[in-house]
Amino acid sequence: MKFEAIVIGLSSGGMSAMKMMFSILPKDFGIPIVIVQHINANSNGFWIKFLNDNSNLNIKEADEKEKIMPGNIYIAPPNYHLLIEKNKTFSLTIDERVNFARPSIDVLFETAAETYKEKLIGIVLTGANQDGTEGIKHIKEFGGLAIIQDPETAESSYMPASAMAAIKADYILPLAEIIALLIKIDQQKN
Amino acid sequence: MEISLLLEAVYQKYGYDFRQYSQAHIGRRVRNRMALSGINDISQIQSKVLEDKEFAYQLLQDLSITVTEMFRDPEFYKSLRKNVIPILKTYPFIKIWHAGCATGEEAYSMAILLQEEGLYDRTTIYATDFNQLALNRAKEGIFSNKVIKEYTLNYQLMEGKKSFSSYYTSSYDHVIMNQSLKKNIVWANHNLVTDSVFAEVNLILCRNVLIYFDHDLQNKVQKLFYNSLIGGGVLCLGSKESLHFSTLEEKYSVLDKNQRIFKKKY
Ligand SMILES: C[S@@+](CC[C@H](N)C(=O)[O-])C[C@H]1O[C@@H](n2cnc3c(N)ncnc32)[C@H](O)[C@@H]1O
Question: Are residues B80 and B201 in the same domain?
């Protein structure tokens, strides 16, 4: 088993989930993580800097055409969709909102699934809409691993519940256990 | 059957060249169209594109993303006022090129800014796009009430000097931009990939167009912009676009790093 990338979708409640995740993940965590967090279109990049300053990991906004490298955590910029190209670089677009969201989790997940196929882990965490549901379906269709936050333990249960109803997830766990699982998977890899 | 073959067919038959656009983007749009039209595989959509002109133009609309706003990124317009207007004021005549103007919001925003700065009467704005439908709408200058709310907020955030409603007349569920804003705007069909330089200008805005292009195509279009600017002319890119990796980076100085505003060296 060898995973090359992790994609994570978060909406309301996502900030505290990310803070928790980034404070626990070890400094040498290898598999690159790409994140869509729904956020106000006019917010500047300050919150990403904040997350980075409070973590051992290298957390940055994804730049267009940037190559996805191990050991990094990339976050979609506000007001742009984030897509992954076949050559494992990022593209940004300002296409219409998807599920009322830009960036949209579905857009990231669908393009990531096509690039990484069975080497992808998709994770749907807390949120109050159904973005991510189509995307996680796509990830499963391409043979990837699907992890969903146990809705009962999520700050906002709607998004993980919606994903859960759409697929047979590989894992449904509270956030702390998802993090532990990721660490285990990452270590197996080495 | 690959999407690249479909794009090749579109190019050969219609002259629209999407072969160097972001593949992930094109893939998404083509699959959406296939789902909407009940088409199951790429070879089927290819034959439909070749046989059915209406459908081909529908697909062109799908691939051209005309999402835009007036005063999108208010901080950018504040910077224009502060850093670029003083440069424009030194010219007796001003030529501005909006490349990829979509439905015109950006060009109208510029016209408003220039009016407020007393520069509009000596300016010609060339607003170009390869999407004729979008250009037709731009020319009309009619926008729905729903978006005007958002534009008004953007205008206030960029510290516009008047009441935004003084720039249009309202009618039922839409507004019509003032004739005085339209008078110096020239709307023209121009394809950045296949057409060449058409004017020498003082200022180019090409925002949120290059993100859709691959590296080589970005470089090619950057050359077109470089050749269209006079010495000391200004280039404005979208808030997530840069001149990094462009061979031309060193031929510009940076006027505003965050707002992606560059000045061509003499
Ligand atoms: C997302 S809009 C950007 C509109 C505006 N500049 C803004 O930032 O709000 C992109 C525009 O680029 C146009 N475009 C894409 N490819 C083009 C090409 N090869 N030549 C001319 N225009 C193009 C599209 O038709 C669309 O209207």
Answer: yes
pLDDT in tens, B235-250: 999 999 999 878 899 9
Inspect the interface and report whether the beta carbons of B27 and A96 lie closer than 8 Å: no
Task: Tell how far the Cα of A152 is from the centroid of ligand 1, in angstroms.
Answer: 44
Nearest chain B residue to A92 by CA distance is B211
Residue A91 alpha carbon to ligand 1 centre in Å:
16
CA-proximal residue: ligand 1, atom 7 (nearest): B68
Distance CA B218, CA B154 (A): 29
- Asked if B8 and B115 sit in the same domain, the reply is no
Domain end, chosen from B63, B84, B107, is at: B63
Sign for the pseudo-dihedral over CA of B11, B15, B21, B24? negative
Residue B43 lies in domain:
2-63
**Partner B contacted by A111 (CB < 8 A):** yes
Model pLDDT for residues B67-81, shown as the tens digit of each residue: 999 999 999 999 999
Report how many domains make up chain B.
2
pTM, entire model: 0.95
Same domain, B10 and B132: no
Query: What does residue A172 show for φ and ψ, rounded to 5 degrees?
Result: -125, 110
Q: Note the ipTM here.
A: 0.94
Domain that holds residue A125: 5-187
Rounded to the nearest 5°, which phi and psi values hold at A72? Answer: -115, 155
Q: Which residues of A touch B245 (CB under 8 A)?
A: 65
- B75 close to B259: Cβ distance less than 8 angstroms: yes
Structurally, chain A folds into a number of domains equal to 1
Is ligand 1 within 6 A of the CB of residue B67? yes
